[in-house]
Structures are given as structure tokens and as C-alpha cells.
Amino acid sequence: MQISPSILAADFANLEREIGRISSADWAHVDVMDGHFVPNLTLGLPVVQALAEVSPVPLDVHLMIEDPDRWAAQYADAGARSVTFHVEAAADVVATARSIREAGARAAIALKPDTSFAGYADMLAEVDMVLVMTVEPGFGGQSFMADQMDKVTQVREAVDRAGVPVWIQVDGGVSADTIETCAQAGADVFVAGSAVYGQQDPAAAVERLRSQAQASGGGAPAR
Ligand code: DX5
Ligand code: ZN
């Protein structure tokens, strides 16, 4: 059970300090938005490269951009240890995943709420993680979509059936109120923005969320 706080909810004027406040996390989730794939614009390669140099935890980059085929591997080169791209934006999902792995990072695919997993089940050997979005991508602080839990369970069943070491991430509205539902559905990596950075002590919030997920009895079966 891993926690990946989203720095989208942090103070963008002080990113080095803010990323230093989540040293208890497993990853730092960095949302890259291009103003085209989603109606919001955040940061890109130079900022990811600078963050990789100062972060106490590895970077989990979530690309919400058009043409990830062209850009994804460059985020691995910039220092991201995990690079997630949206299948809706990719021309060639398998080739893009391979380009990320060849650049030395974990490769992950993301599914928007209206995107079904069915078409991607046969690609599990090509990826290290599947991100099931639990909000429409673009903004932090939105309400959790419980109707995505069936998809999480479908991915969990496919991963276990295939016997592959693929992690299942949820992102959007994950909090103390919703993390247990996610874990019970089969998720094992949890992105949380406002639920971590909205607290006085973000590092303590990370520990609490992880304990809650662990206590829920969900996630990957022990092998
Ligand atoms: C939304 C981003 C999320 C966002 C989550 O498009 O992908 O990572 O920061 O924020 P919360 O946890 O506040 O919903
Ligand atoms: Zn995200």
C-alpha cells in the first residue's frame, strides 16, 4: 500500500519546501497538464527535472497531455521514476510504454472515467501500473467517483489472473473517507492532493492514509 501525494495541492511558489514535507510518502505525484488534453496548465520538463534533484522521494509523473508518444520518455530522462500517460491521448500505447521503460522508468497507463479497461487488458505485460481516474482529470479538490470502483476491481482481477506485478493506482478525491473503498476494490497506490496538503502536517496525513489502506484488508493478494 503506497501513498503518492499530489503536489498540485501544494504551494507552487515553494515547491522544494513543499515536496520536502512529504518525506514519509512512497512517491511524489506530479501532475503535468498542457491546457489541451485537459483545461488546465501546470508545469513541464524543466520543472520536473528541477524537482527530481531535490525530492526526498521518487517522482510519479502523471501526464495529462496530448501526444504523450512524443513526450513520455523525456520525462523519464528528466528524472521521473514512474511516468503515466493517458491511453485516450496516445497513438500507440504499447510503443509509448516501451519507450518509458527503455528510458529507465516504470511505465503506466491512465484511464479517464468514461474509458473502459476492456481494450487494455491484453497490454498488462507492457506496463508497471494502471491508473484508474476517480475524477475527470484537470483539477484537484473534486468529488470522488465511487462508480469507478467496478473498473478498479476489473483491473485487479485481470492483474491477478495474469500473475503480473502491476500496481493499481487511484487518483482524484482520495481521502480518509474514500481510501478504504479504493483499497477494498483492489487499488494499492493512492494519489491524494488536498487530503495531504490540506492538513497541518502532510507527512502525518500520509502515514494515516497508508495505515487506513493497510487496515482495510484490500489490495494485492499475498504471493
Ligand atoms: C487531477 C489530478 C490529481 C489531483 C488530485 O486531474 O490528476 O492528481 O491533484 O487532487 P485531489 O486529491 O485533491 O482530488
Ligand atoms: Zn494526477
CATH-level-2 architecture:
Alpha-Beta Barrel
Strand content: 15-25%
Can you tell me the number of structural domains? 1
Uncertain stretches of 5 or more adjacent residues: none
Shape call: globular
CATH homology superfamily name: Aldolase class I
Features:
223 residues, alpha/beta, TIM Barrel, globular, binds D-xylitol-5-phosphate, binds zinc ion
Question: Topology of this protein?
Answer:
Layout: E1 2-5, H1 15-20, E2 28-33, H2 45-54, E3 59-64, H3 68-77, E4 82-86, H4 93-102, E5 106-111, E6 129-133, H5 149-162, E7 167-171, H6 179-185, E8 189-192, H7 194-197, H8 202-215
Parallel strand pairs: 1-8, 2-3, 3-4, 4-5, 5-6, 6-7, 7-8
Helix pairs in contact: 3-4, 6-8
Bound molecules: D-xylitol-5-phosphate (DX5) and zinc ion.
Polypeptide structure, described:
This protein has one domain (2-215): Aldolase class I (TIM Barrel, Alpha-Beta Barrel). The protein has eight helices and eight strands; from the N terminus they run βαβαβαβαββαβαβαα. It has helices at residues 15-20, 45-54, 68-77, 93-102, 149-162, 179-185, 194-197, 202-215; strands at 2-5, 28-33, 59-64, 82-86, 106-111, 129-133, 167-171, 189-192. An eight-stranded parallel beta sheet has the order 1-8-7-6-5-4-3-2. α6 packs across α8 (202-215). Bound molecules: D-xylitol-5-phosphate (DX5) and zinc ion. Residues 6, 8-9, 29, 31, 62, 135, 137-142, 171-174, 191-195 line the site of D-xylitol-5-phosphate (DX5).
Explain briefly what this protein structure is.
This protein has helices at residues 15-20, 45-54, 68-77, 93-102, 149-162, 179-185, 194-197, 202-215; strands at residues 2-5, 28-33, 59-64, 82-86, 106-111, 129-133, 167-171, 189-192. With 223 residues, the chain is α/β, with parallel strands linked by helices. The mean pLDDT is 97.
